[in-house]
């Protein structure tokens, strides 16, 4: 029996009802699978800072990766639809959505946007099928927001090989994955270039970052590259400058905005359930005016973010999305998310910080989403430069 699609309660203005029937059917199936097999285990893994080994297989079966690429998509679809996929994933758990964002948007996206036809065919179908897990290595221990100028990882061409040296930090999926897209400065011309590096290559070491307080399920790594040798054809053919890395980030930034909206929706749903069931002074706290105010503010934030994300994704479908529009979506959606989860946490009182009630996990995870893939400050400066005509980065 096919799962029936219905707009979520958090989608108060029912924007998802405008999706094509095949897209709605896909979302209904994905939602049912996530709620059945993933939602019951995420608190346990979050507390243990462990990754569910079954997750890649489940998501591959649901075809959650490769939706936007000709080599791996199950049907023609829109960027708006792919945003809703990120929303549905994050509504259950932000770490699950982040895993897909790294695998699909950053790793596969680098190959799709910067690889040759042969490279796309070599890696994308296997990654969509879950046979290869990928990571995206741009951020370094001493270079985050200034990656355009501050990368220290180097690449040197020696005959039919490239030799890579340096380090990367905050690299999701890298502790257990199969390959990593490494962005490094070519010693010959000073340009940033992209490389597909198998994690099993001698000299490649990925160490898990411990003691995180957010996105604890995501297995972030510090990567050390010591004379890592890869074949020449592992250089992504069209990744020849930092502008190519920025192109990948532009296409994924709007999906992170969708992820933020989905995380806020998950927090809202958990807070609403708690408010309806929790009784104080002889009645559900949902009857109290101040609790309703918390819930309505959160709901409004979710729907404001959805509306902005949908429009920016429509622009991407039309080939008209700009860096500044993607940056505005990410900055605004994450700001609205942060405020929404705070109201949801407050509506739950002390139980809002306990994993058993759901909201606490969303509350903690929101902090990482707020900062990754372009901080609020950097995205603000990107938009600010556009609207004022003045660059204020340094």
TrEMBL record:
PANTHER family according to UniProt: ACYL-COA DEHYDROGENASE, ACYL-COENZYME A OXIDASE
Protein's name in the database: Acyl-CoA dehydrogenase
Family: Belongs to the acyl-CoA dehydrogenase family.
Recorded coiled-coil stretches: none
Gene3D superfamilies, A to Z: Acyl-CoA dehydrogenase/oxidase, N-terminal domain, Butyryl-CoA Dehydrogenase, subunit A, domain 2, Butyryl-CoA Dehydrogenase, subunit A, domain 3
Domain Acyl-CoA oxidase/dehydrogenase middle: 135-228
Keyword field: FAD, Flavoprotein, Oxidoreductase
MF (Gene Ontology): acyl-CoA dehydrogenase activity; flavin adenine dinucleotide binding
Presence of the UniProt keyword Flavoprotein in the record: yes
Residues in Acyl-CoA dehydrogenase/oxidase N-terminal domain copies: 23-131
Any GO BP annotation: fatty acid beta-oxidation
Matches recorded under PROSITE patterns: ACYL_COA_DH_2
Residue stretches making up the Acyl-CoA dehydrogenase/oxidase C-terminal domain: 245-387
Pfam families membership: Acyl-CoA_dh_1 (PF00441), Acyl-CoA_dh_M (PF02770), Acyl-CoA_dh_N (PF02771)
Tagged with keyword Flavoprotein: yes
Cofactor needs: FAD
């Amino acid at each position: 029996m096919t799962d029936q699609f219905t707009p979520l309660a958090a989608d108060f203005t029912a924007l998802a009802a405008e999706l094509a029937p095949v897209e709605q059917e896909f979302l209904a199936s994905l939602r049912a699978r996530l709620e059945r097999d993933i939602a019951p285990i995420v608190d346990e893994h979050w507390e243990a800072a462990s990754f569910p080994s079954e997750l890649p297989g489940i998501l591959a079966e649901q075809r959650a990766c490769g939706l936007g690429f000709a080599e791996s998509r199950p049907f023609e679809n829109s960027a708006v639809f792919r945003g809703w996929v990120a929303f549905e994933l994050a509504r259950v758990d932000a770490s699950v959505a982040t895993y897909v964002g790294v695998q699909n948007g950053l790793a596969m996206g680098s190959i799709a946007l910067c690889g040759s036809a042969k490279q796309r065919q070599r890696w994308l179908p296997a990654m969509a099928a879950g046979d290869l897990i990928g990571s995206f290595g741009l951020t370094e221990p001493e270079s985050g927001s200034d990656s355009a100028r501050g990368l220290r990882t180097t690449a040197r061409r020696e005959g039919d090989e490239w030799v890579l040296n340096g380090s990367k930090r905050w690299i999701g999926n890298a502790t257990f994955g199969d390959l990593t897209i490494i962005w490094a400065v070519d010693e010959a011309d000073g340009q940033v270039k992209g490389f597909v590096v198998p994690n099993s290559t001698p000299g490649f070491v990925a160490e898990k970052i411990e003691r995180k307080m957010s996105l604890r399920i995501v297995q972030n790594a510090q990567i050390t590259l010591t004379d890592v040798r890869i074949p020449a054809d592992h250089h992504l053919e069209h990744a020849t400058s930092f502008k190519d890395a920025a192109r990948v980030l532009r296409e994924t930034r709007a999906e992170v905005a969708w992820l933020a909206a989905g995380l806020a929706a998950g927090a809202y749903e958990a807070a609403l359930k708690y408010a309806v069931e929790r009784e104080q002074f002889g009645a559900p706290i949902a009857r109290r005016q101040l609790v309703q105010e918390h819930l309505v503010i959160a709901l409004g934030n979710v729907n404001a973010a959805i509306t902005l994300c949908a429009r920016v994704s429509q622009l991407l479908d039309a080939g008209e999305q700009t860096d500044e529009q993607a940056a505005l979506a990410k900055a605004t959606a994450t700001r609205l998310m942060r405020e929404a989860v705070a109201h949801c946490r407050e509506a739950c009182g002390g139980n809002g910080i306990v994993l058993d009630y759901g909201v606490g996990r969303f509350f903690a995870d929101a902090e990482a989403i707020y900062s990754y893939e372009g901080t609020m400050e950097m995205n603000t400066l990107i938009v600010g430069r556009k609207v004022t005509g003045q660059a204020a980065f340094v």
